[in-house]
Amino acid sequence: MLAGGIGGARFLRGLKSVLGSGEGTDGSDPEITVIGNTGDDITLFGLKICPDLDTVMYTLGGGINEEQGWGRAEETFSVRSELAAYGMQPQWFGLGDRDVATHIVRTQMLSAGYPLSAVTEALCDRWRPGVRLIPMTDERVETHVVVCDDEGRRAIHFQEWWVRHRAALPAEAILPVGVEKATPAPGVLEAIEAADFVLFPPSNPVVSVGTILAVPGIRDAVAAKTVVGVSPIIGDAPVRGMADACLSAIGVETSARAVAEHYGAELLDGWLVDDADAGTRVEGIDVRSRPLYMSDPAATEAIARAAVDLALELKERA
Amino acid sequence: MLAGGIGGARFLRGLKSVLGSGEGTDGSDPEITVIGNTGDDITLFGLKICPDLDTVMYTLGGGINEEQGWGRAEETFSVRSELAAYGMQPQWFGLGDRDVATHIVRTQMLSAGYPLSAVTEALCDRWRPGVRLIPMTDERVETHVVVCDDEGRRAIHFQEWWVRHRAALPAEAILPVGVEKATPAPGVLEAIEAADFVLFPPSNPVVSVGTILAVPGIRDAVAAKTVVGVSPIIGDAPVRGMADACLSAIGVETSARAVAEHYGAELLDGWLVDDADAGTRVEGIDVRSRPLYMSDPAATEAIARAAVDLALELKERA
Predict the structure, then answer these.
(1) Which NCBIfam families match (chains A, B) (predicted)?
(2) Is the peptide bond before A170 cis (omega within 30 degrees of 0)?
(3) CB B100 to CB A79 under 8 A?
(4) Mutate to test the interface with A, among B88, B91, B100 (most CBs of A within 10 A)
(5) Cα distance between residue A75 and residue A66, in whole Å
(6) What angle (nearest 5°) sits at the alpha carbon of residue A244, between those of residues A238 and A249?
(7) According to the model, what pLDDT value does residue B318 have?
(8) Taking Cα atoms as reference points, which of A300, A290, A281 lies closest to residue A240?
(9) Which long-range contacts link B56-59 to residues 24+ away (Cβ below 8 Å)?
(10) Domains of chain B (ranges plus CATH)?
(11) Of A13, A18, A208, B194, whose Cβ has the fewest other Cβ atoms within 10 Å?
(12) Distance (Å, rounded) from C-alpha B102 to C-alpha B64?
């Protein structure tokens, strides 16, 4: 699976309860490998922060703030309030104390020379997410957003646009800086090649799944497999988050159909849309409709099961 | 004033209430410059920690944990418990969340190229300690302690000896590593030269005041001034802390007289001892006795006043 943050992490909980119950093609519990987006990564206060990897790790490891969907449960904010008291900028990033410890461990290991993939594996030794989590690349890729307002046209970090401006500043372009020179982290291409099928959860198709696919080599490896995606758009709105602002920036309509067309038939084999979008047709892609709101664990598991079933069916047919 | 941590910071509160009330030699409120010990500094989890500078800053700035004497008031410990959950070592250092923010700011400024003296000044912009606080040096000096136990003879960081072992492992030597190549931070020698007099608070004479004096140039500059010290030893025990363990390591008896002799008459002009040590005589040093327990603000102020009065008297006589 390719995964962004909240949507990917929640979908993974459903997928684990489907696949963990012995529905792998060989009858045993299959391994789930998650290729995580790192385009949202940011270095703040000298700390390397990987929001999407952490959201997956915390969600599957039982440490997530459930209401919020990101950050740690039972969090405190002493570090943040003290940094503000020192006048440190930026102050718009929600940095919790428990979360800070994760970033300290990561930053220390990175400066000791370990690649991000090894660091992620070490952090997962504690969290035991029950999946193999690999960052898309060990190299630095940072999504920047070109905005234009009273202060003029400029590129700002994705997090500044997303968190500080809540994606309300119109984006003229979304640039995954450094992606064209990045290489997939060790194990990424091997995992895709060895996979029975690849799933796209209802993560942001531009800044999450799109960024992962932009790492040279990953799109081609994925395209060679049976791929089923779950639409992050229901009706004409994102299920959650502000994916519409990202789609507008790249000139794609906010609809389940347009997102499938954007991924393209050379990549996607199957596409799950919500019943609200029943009747959606995309040339070359097998579209099925069902309820897509991940409203509780049972609903999420049913969506994951539908994605797995469709993937197995399409793989059988291929 | 040369200062270590808790003893120096508490004495400074008394000194501020004496000198802040207009008793400077020119009739106006004089400036107090504090040369802080940095030999206790340690880098943990990638964070540069300066325990003595922070104790002075927090104590005078109103942020100290009063009962403990170090660390922040109303502290939380989320980062520490999370680092432990990740299995990070060491776990014996009492790293609070509020305190972590200070270390993050310091570490960021240092890695941006600012010297520790400039960083300390920036941190004091927030705390407004009412004194000018300068680290003894901008270079790295780290006090190591040679110990010998079942694990063999080895040098450990002062903090490991002090905090983890509570100075209970006999010290064979105390080594301020790097001090011989260190240079005083900008402003240190100038402040000493411009001073009306120099005070040694009841800080540890070995690992606090002793380390500052070991920075080449500082001892000579201090020796040229009128110097009055306050004994950190009352009877045959340290007022607080474990100075006796440090004195033993350098072969000095734990007594007010022995500490004065260790500083030496070429450095010290006056020496305040507790009434319990009345009658102490040291060749070439004017010894006075009075109550030396800093039991409350009034008692501390009275001790500071006695030190200032003795310094002014000796300076007059010189």
Answers:
(1) F420_cofD
(2) no
(3) yes
(4) B100
(5) 12
(6) 160
(7) 80
(8) A300
(9) B56/B3, B56/B5, B56/B8, B56/B9, B56/B12, B56/B129, B56/B131, B56/B133, B57/B120, B57/B123, B57/B124, B57/B127, B57/B129, B57/B133, B58/B9, B58/B127, B59/B6, B59/B9, B59/B10, B59/B12, B59/B13, B59/B129
(10) 2-39+130-139+181-317 (3.40.50.10680)
(11) B194
(12) 13
**In the structure encoding, which two tokens stand for residue A238, read together?**
């994102």
Distances (CA, A) of B101 to A285, B30, B163, B208, B249: 52, 32, 21, 25, 35
Rounded Cα distance between B227 and B160, Å, is: 32
Over residues A305-318, the mean pLDDT reads 95
Residues of A in contact with B96 (CB under 8 A): 78
Chain A contact for B47 (CB, 8 A cutoff): yes
Q: What is the mean pLDDT of residues A176-180?
A: 97
Q: With beta carbons less than 8 A apart as the criterion, state whether B117 and B190 touch.
A: no
Q: Which of B244, B185, B263, B251 is nearest to B218 (CA)?
A: B185
- As given in the structure block, the two tokens for residue A254 are 């906010």
Q: What is the pLDDT of residue B25?
A: 52
- What would you report as the CA-atom Rg of chain B, rounded to the nearest whole angstrom? 19
Token representation of residue A37? 């987006």
* CA B197 to chain CA centroid, nearest Å: 17
Q: What is the pLDDT of residues B74-132, one digit of tens each?
A: 999 999 999 999 999 999 998 999 999 999 999 999 999 999 999 999 999 999 999 99
Sign, CA torsion A141/A142/A147/A149: negative
> What was the ipTM of the complex prediction?
0.91
Residue range A286-300, pLDDT digits in tens: 999 999 999 999 999
Amino acid at A203: S
**CA gap B222, B194 in Å, rounded:** 11
Residue B276, min C-alpha distance to chain A (Å): 44
Say which residues have a Cβ less than 8 Å from residue B263's Cβ, sequence separation at least 6: B200, B205, B209, B229
CA distance A2 to B241: 56
Size of chain B in residues: 318
